[in-house]
Amino acid sequence: MKNVDYIVVGCGLAGIAFSEQLRAANRSFMVFDDGSQQSSKVAAGLYNPVTLKRFTKVWNAKAQLDLAIPKYTQLEALLQQDLNHKLPVRRKFASVKEQNEWFVASDQPVLCDFMAPTIIKESCEGLKADFGFGEVLHSGRIDTARLVNSYHAYLQDEGKLERERFAYDAVGLETDHIQYKNLEAKHIVFTEGFGLCKNPFFNNLPLRGLKGEMLTIKAPKLKMDFILKSSIFLVPLGNDEFWVGATYEHHDKTHTVSEAGKAELLSKLKTVIDCEFEVVNQVAGIRPTTKDRRPLVGRHPEHKNMFVLNGLGTRGVMISPYVAQQLFDFIEFGTALDPEIDIRRCS
Fold first, then answer.
1. In whole angstroms, what is the distance from residue 129 CA to residue 224 CA?
2. In what order do the strands lie in the sheet with 233-238?
3. d(C-alpha 44, C-alpha 274), whole Å
4. What distance in Å separates the CA atoms of residue 162 and residue 144, rounded to the nearest whole number?
């Protein structure tokens, strides 16, 4: 029998963020991940403090960014990987009306630190932009595929990762610990993304699965050194390749790509660029979302050593370090959770 402080189930962005809290605090842990959830790997990995459809501030944006960026810097050093690509996000305007709305929003105290108060009129080769762009400050992307793969390899080398399906029926609930196969742990934390829907301990939570399909294109004549938001996001990846996404499908809960998803993305892409390109890849993932767009964090109502960290939605890169610290402080120090993320709001 092996003793650890924590069992962590799931190792996407949420699992990595919580594992990093444990590593920093010198807590022992074992992670289980069967590779069934793909959303963290296929995401664009954007961190962007402004909702660009309505020009409003992202919930808790400053607190999230202030915590997240140093965490990713630490991960770069730990994994010896280049993960953080600091790129401006530019919102393409479709009209003079949108330009005026940008000016009004950028003058608000809650947004002035995140939105440049000018219109960028110069375009770039291969891009259609008759009305110019607004630029978001303090934005960029994390290479989430590289992060997940590198972190898994790191845990494997440390003997802290089991690449297997977690067997819920093998969980033994004792008074002061959790028993699972040959492990005895003080706590167990479920960070499974949409896989939570199959978890008998937390499947009552209002988690929604929102499927997204994304393309990678190669466009040598598209000279774009920023992230573009229009009817889609267009994100430079290097080597003339760009991430194009994403669709929003509420009913299909599979990772299977579709011709309909591809057609939707290509139709929108052709309204944005006017240069030749080829599609080199198509992927899909199921985002773990909630109706109120707030994460699901907290303790099981009956089992005091069992916790959940989920529902990060489309902003996992920004949110995950913040909610991971919230949960760690709650477990270790009894610090109250932010009421907006506490699962008790769902009861």
1. 12
2. 133-136, 89-92, 227-229, 233-238, 241-245, 207-218, 278-290
3. 22
4. 20
In three-state secondary structure terms, 86 is coil
From CA 107, how far away is CA 117, in angstroms rounded? 7
Q: 1 falls in which pLDDT band (50, 70, 90)?
A: confident
Inform me whether the pLDDT recorded for 187 exceeds 90. yes
Enter the pTM of the model: 0.95
What pLDDT shows up at residue 86? 95
Give the separation between CA 152 and CA 279, rounded to whole angstroms. 29
* pLDDT at residue number 36: 86
Reduce the DSSP state of residue 158 to 3 states and report it. helix
Which structural domains are found in the chain, ordered by start?
A: 2-44+145-207+292-346 (3.50.50.60)
- Can you say whether the dihedral through the CA atoms of 145, 149, 152, 158 is positive or negative? negative
The Cα 83–Cα 245 span in angstroms is 20
Judged against a pLDDT cut of 90, whether residue 347 lies above it is answered with no
d(CA 25, CA 310): 21
Q: What does DSSP say about strands 84-85 and 140-142: parallel, antiparallel, or unpaired?
A: antiparallel
Sort strands 161-162 and 2-9 into parallel, antiparallel or unpaired: unpaired
Question: Over the stretch 278-311, which tens digit does the pLDDT of each residue have?
Answer: 999 999 999 999 999 999 999 999 999 999 999 9
Q: Which residue has the tokens 């109250």?
A: 336
DSSP symbol at 226:
S
pLDDT score at 105: 95
pLDDT for residue 161: 97
Q: To the nearest whole number, what is the mean pLDDT of the chain?
A: 95
